[in-house]
Amino acid sequence: MQTLSLSIILPVKNVEQEIGGILRSVISQVNGIETEFLIVDMGSRDGTVLECVQFIKDERLRGFVVQNGDGSVSAALNTGIQKASGDYVTFIFARRLYMDFLKGYLDTAARTDADFVFGSFSEDDVRTAERRALSKAVQKQGGLEYMKAVINGAVRIDISAVLLRKSFLREKELYFHEECRYGYVEEFVYRCLLQAQTIVQSPTILTRNAVFELKRGKTKPIGKDIFEKVEAMLRVGLILRTSYKQDPELLALFTDQVIPKTVMNCVDVLLREGNGYNAIRGQLRLLEYDKLLLPGRRTDKELKRQLRTWNLIPWMYKCKP
C-alpha cells in the first residue's frame, strides 16, 4: 500500500487560549504520517499568530502560519489549498473537531486511490462502507448518485471530516467561493461530488471531540447576509442545468427540494434573530426568492407543509429551533 502525505488546513481567528488544545487533538491522530500543518490566520487581534508559531516550533511540526488578512473563512481555506504540498488535504475547524479519523481516511485513500473520502456516522454507515469496499461496482458509485443521497439524507458529509486529493482539486480548479460567507461549504461539497472520479466512504466512525472544540458562540447577528446561502445553491443549480442535463432527476430534486429548503432555512435564521414576517417577505420579494418557494414533484411532505404555511398564513409559521 502506498504511503500518502497529508496537508492539514486550519483557519483560525482569535483563539490564542484554545489553539494549543486544538492542535494537540490533531497531532495525536497523525503519528507516523507525513504531515504538514497550514494554519491560516484571518486577522486575529490577540496572540493567536505568535502562539501558533511557537507551538509549531516547540512540537517540531512541519508547517507554517499564514497571515491572510481580515478575510473570509473561504478565502483562508483557498490559501491553504494553494499552499498545500501533501498528496491529500483535510480541513480542521475549531468549532467542529472529530477524533481519530485521519489514519482511517488515509488507509481508505491508499486502498482505493480516491479523490474524495468521507466518513461514517453510525454502525449502519460502517457496514455500508465495508460492503462497498468488497465490490468494485458499488465502490465506484458516481458523484451524481452520492449527491442525490446527500440531498435525500441517506448520506451525510461534514466538511470538517473529509479527505480530498490535492491534484484533483487543482486539476478541476475546485476552490471555495471567496465572496461567500454562508453556503460556501455546501457549494464546494456539491461541486466536488459532481467532478470526482472516485468517491469513497471510509468505514471510520466519526465522533466529535467536545473537549477541545471552541465553545464561544458567535456574537453578531447574521441578518440578510444569510441569503448568500441561496446564491450559493443557485450557482450549483446553474451547473446542473448547463453541464449535467443527462440526469434530469437530480436537477428536479435540487430545484424542488434543495433550493426552497435553503430559502426557508434563511427565513428561520431571520425569524430567530427577531425579524418580522412582513420584513422578511419584503426581502424575499425584493430578491425574487419568493418565486423559489413553489413545491414540485420532488419536494418532500414536510417542506411542502412549510411552504404552504409560509406562503398562505406566514404568521402561523413556526421556525425551526
| Helicity, as a percent range | 40-55%
Strand order, biggest sheet?
3-2-1-4-7-6-8
Describe the largest sheet. 7 strands, mixed
Order of H and E elements: EHEHEHEEHEHHHEHHEEHHHH
Shape: globular
Strand content: 5-15%
Mean pLDDT over the residues: 93
Q: Number of DSSP strands?
A: 9
Structural class: alpha/beta
Distance between the termini: 47 Å
Summarize the structure in words.
- With 321 residues, this protein is an alpha/beta fold.
- 47% of the residues lie in helices and 13% in strands.
- It has helices spanning 19-27, 48-58, 73-83, 102-112, 123-134, 136-139, 143-152, 166-171, 184-195, 228-243, 248-272, 277-287, 301-312, and strands spanning 6-12, 35-41, 63-67, 88-91, 98-99, 116-120, 162-165, 199-205, 207-208.
- Helix 1 links the parallel strand 1 (6-12) and strand 2 (35-41).
- The radius of gyration is 21 Å and the shape is globular.
Brief overview, please?
With 321 residues, this protein is an alpha/beta fold. The protein has helices spanning 19-27, 48-58, 73-83, 102-112, 123-134, 136-139, 143-152, 166-171, 184-195, 228-243, 248-272, 277-287, 301-312, and strands at 6-12, 35-41, 63-67, 88-91, 98-99, 116-120, 162-165, 199-205, 207-208. The longest helix has 25 residues, at 248-272.
